[in-house]
What does this fold into?
Amino acid sequence: MTELKTFNKKQLENFVSSGDFSSFDFLPISAHRAKSQIRNLKALDDQTLLVLAFYDGKLAGYVGCFPDNYLIDGEIFHYAWLSTLFVSEEFRGKRIAKALLNKMFEEYDGNIIATEFTKEAEALYNMLGVFEYVYPKAGKRYYFRSDAAGIIPEKKPRTKALGPLFQVADAVVNSLISVKNSTVKKPQFRFETLDHIDAESSELLSKFQSKRSADEINVFIKNPWVLEGKKKDDHYLFSSYAEVFKYIWVKIYDDKNTLITGSLLQLRDGNLKIPYLFSETSGLDRFIEFLSYFIVTNKVKTLTSYQKELNKKLDESKKFPKIYERNFERRYMFHKLLIQHLPEGFDPRYQDGDGDCMMT
It folds into this structure.
C-alpha cells in the first residue's frame, strides 16, 4: 500500500535538521538543496516542496517542486516547477510515480510546469495526458575546445580503452586553438565581475521585465543546489556536487561610465550558461567582447544559450571564438489546468535561468 507524505518549508527544515532525511536507502533531497528551497523568496509557508512515497513503510520514491509566481494584472498567481522525480527500481510497476505527480498536481491545483526533463520523465508526462507543450525556446550550444576524451567514451562506452589516445588528440587540437585564440585580448572598456548583484546592478534590472528580482537571484547565488568539490553523493541521484561550480555577476559600462549591461554567468566544469542577461541591444557588442575574453581565459568548453538577441549577434560575430555550434530547443510542458488558469495570449517571457534552470 502506498502512503504519501508532504513537506512544506517548516516541515522540510525540521526533516533535514533532524537527520531523518539521511536514514533511507537513498536521499530524497540534499541538505543544501533543501536549504535553498526553504529560502526561496517566492515559496509560501504552506506550499508543498517535497512529497515522499512509502510502500509498505519503506521509502519508494519522491517528487520535488520549485514554487514560483507570475504577476498578472497586478495580482500574484502562484504555480510551481517540477524539480525532481525518482522511484526506486525496487518499486517500479507499482504506479508510484503517478501517485507522486497526482499529489503534486492536487497540491497546486494543476498549476505545474516541467522543463529540462529526461526522456523517461517526458514519456511519463505524456502518458498521463495532462500536459501540453507550449512556449518552446530556440537555442544554441557553442563549442570552443576539443573534448573527445570526455564526450566519446560517454556516448560509446566501448571506446573507454582509447581514453589516452583521445587525451593526446585533445591536447594537440587545443594547443592549436589556443594559438588561434591568442588574438582575444582583455577588453579595454570598463567592466566588473562580482559574486553577487549589487545595488547599482539592481537599479539596472528594474528597467527590464524579469520574472526574478535581484534579491531572488542573490538568494540562489548564496544558496546553490550544487557545491564545489570532488565529493559525489551516491545516495542522491540528482545534481549535488561539481569540481567547478560558480556564479559570476558581470557589469559592463559605456564610455561615459554608465552601467549598460548586467549578466549572470554560471560556470560548471567548463560548461557555461547565461541564466540572466539585462542589456539593450546596443550593449551586446561589448558583452560579446567580454564573453569571448572570459571563455578563452577560463578555457570554457561549451556555452549553451537561449538568449535570442544575443545568439543572433554571436552568429554574426567574426571574433567570437567558437569552433562549432548546434541548434537546441528548450521545451516547456504546462499542465492543462494551468493553461486554463492563464489569460489568453499569455507570454511568460522566460529567461534562461527561470524555473530551476539556473540551479544546476
About this structure: The chain has a mean pLDDT of 93. The radius of gyration is 22 Å. The CA atoms of residues 135 and 347 lie 8 Å apart. DSSP finds eleven helices and 14 strands in the chain.
